[in-house]
Design brief:
Mean pLDDT of chain A: 94
Distance between the termini of chain A: 37 Å
Oligomer: homodimer
CATH superfamily of the largest domain in chain A: Isopropylmalate Dehydrogenase
Structural class of chain A: alpha/beta
CATH topology of the largest domain in chain A: Isopropylmalate Dehydrogenase
Low-confidence stretches of chain A: none
Strand order of the largest sheet of chain A: 3-2-1-4-11-10-5-6-9-7-8
Radius of gyration of chain A: 21 Å
CATH class of the largest domain in chain A: Alpha Beta
Number of strands of chain A: 11
Number of helices of chain A: 12
Largest sheet of chain A: 11 strands, mixed
CATH architecture of the largest domain in chain A: 3-Layer(aba) Sandwich
Largest interface: A-B, 62 and 61 residues
């Protein structure tokens, strides 16, 4: 008998839930025979989109955490919400990982308060994957903490380097990931007290391939495989990059629309290049944002995820589970403590 | 007799100095009859590019601060450098403003240590102007501190709001500039201790048109006219936006180059739209970065500035001088103290 890995899915999170969630889950189920899914949410709605229940269990609940709910309060009061029940399934070892496209703050709170921190980890951090915008266009880098914390100490940044290293090795297959510290200059003495101290911690940890300080423009050119930052700056940089990229695509479209017949003809001929640029900026192919430092994979896909984005994220979770990333992190930090 | 305003120019700063500096100065001299210039640098080199010495004085020096010099050390030891002499001219009231395309750190040090802080200002901040990437494409916003400081207290951010407001009013002609606080969420309670306290200071200052917290993606859509941030985050966001924009233009170019004959034909037909996009991202038309909170306009243009960028920056300085921005800031903060 095959022992399958189980993913607890908040089927009601996201703009297009449960439809795109169900479709993405079925795609992952059809591809990975070693996966099973528990879908939490409105049974009749879920069933109306589900083609087959093979390896899929539905746990009915009417309660849903909305995008506007205050995260910590929602986790504490909406005990029967699809998100809380999915997180609880992981806590109770009924599932091995937790996935949602819903309220990010609530997912972080569920990860921290329900799934729980790995012993030895002070402040779990959110890892995002971003495209490298140079070279052949296949590159990517991880940024953490990209927003789980509003403030971080140097020791947290050191832990993010280790967490990010494990992720880059196990999920992205990078043997010796280059770790960079996000800073306002490349020289070792640069930055705030936090980054100056973090530099020392990273630089003296021989287990890390530390490449030094990296600036926010250099990370887009692939200066490091894993970029470590405090959650406030990491979040601001993530949003600035996403915002600039999407605004530029939008602006280019408008300029083409206003450019008359010649311009429109040009855009038609260039269609593949322009959509290539858009695809390049589409982060969903890398999967979702991962809360690292908790006892199981806790992963958030974008609220606007389509079925493909859901599928990519489940593929990413599958990889984390197969590669035993979390158990090995637990073991690493228990030996440190 | 006309009393002309004098700008002290570090003629040797920047990649194309002194040629582009001299050319930009002459263009500004020809346009503004109320301006005079003192050019500091290698006299023979400067003269070889200069068409006319009307309203232009040259002060010869051989010493130059390079892009690789350690800023504070350079200011302290290279006493006869073109940058230090230009800053000293302002300190000694021989000039009303100080301009350079050279080493940013050295310019900041010269501004702080030689020109000096306005009484009542704790930590002068660097103001940058960035394009709003939505609407008709004519919008812009100011971001400060964009990198003069590695750490800031809430009171500094409050002062940046006031400094930025004066700049937006006097230079950009915005009557009641919308002030936003860069944060990791829009709700009032969001952020670090610094942003939470800064929020309170800004929100209770009735002289400010405070629009609340703004996120790094929203500022590109024009969420505020003046965006206030600590220098570490402001610097990271500035570099992330610049980096993402320039990388995307680069990526688009590569994709067009690789797209075969059809794609290249399309690009030809779209040429005006594509160069429009590039122009939109060209910050030089807004002038340079301004160190606000010191006793005179201290302005830095990009090291790669062409003559037009130098001219735009001198036009920006002219506006600050004509509008008496600095004297009015001095007066405002002396009444506060």
């Amino acid at each position: 008998m095959t022992v399958r890995m189980k993913i607890a899915v908040d089927a009601m999170g996201g703009d297009n839930a449960p439809q795109t969630v169900v479709e993405g889950v079925e795609r992952a189920r059809d591809e990975y025979s070693d996966l099973e899914f528990i879908l939490f949410g409105k049974k009749s709605e879920i069933k109306s989109y589900l083609k087959s229940e093979v390896h899929i269990k539905i746990v009915h609940t009417d309660e849903v955490i909305s995008m506007n709910d205050e995260p910590v309060k929602a986790i504490r009061t909406k005990k029967n919400s699809s998100m809380v029940l999915a997180a609880k399934a992981v806590k109770d070892k009924e599932a091995d990982a937790f996935f949602s496209c819903g309220n990010t703050g609530a997912l972080l709170a569920a990860g921290l308060l329900i799934v729980g921190r790995i012993k030895g980890i002070s402040r779990p951090g959110l890892l995002s994957t971003l495209p490298v915008l140079s070279g052949d266009g296949s590159g990517a880098f991880n940024l953490l903490d990209s927003g789980a914390n509003a403030e971080n100490k140097p020791e947290h940044l050191h832990q993010y380097a280790i967490l990010g290293k494990y992720y880059a090795q196990r999920v992205r297959g990078i043997k010796n990931p280059r770790i960079g510290l996000l800073n306002n200059g490349t020289e070792p003495h640069k930055g705030s007290k936090v980054t100056q101290e973090a530099y020392q911690l990273l630089n003296t940890d021989d287990t890390l391939n530390f490449v030094g300080n990296v600036e926010a423009n250099a990370i887009l050119k692939g200066a490091a495989d894993v970029v470590v930052a405090d959650g406030f700056t990491g979040n601001a940089v993530l949003k600035a990059i996403e915002g600039a990229a999407s605004a530029m695509i939008h602006l280019l479209k408008n300029m083409i629309m206003d450019s008359g017949l010649t311009g429109k003809l040009g855009a038609m001929l260039l269609k593949s290049s322009l959509s290539g640029l858009k695809d390049k900026m589409d982060q969903s192919r890398y999967g979702g944002a991962v809360l690292l430092g908790v006892k199981a994979p806790v992963v958030k896909a974008h609220g606007a995820s389509d079925d493909a984005a859901v599928y990519y994220t489940l593929r990413q979770i599958h990889k984390m589970l197969v590669e035993k990333m979390t158990p090995d992190l637990v073991s690493y930090f228990s030996h440190k403590g």
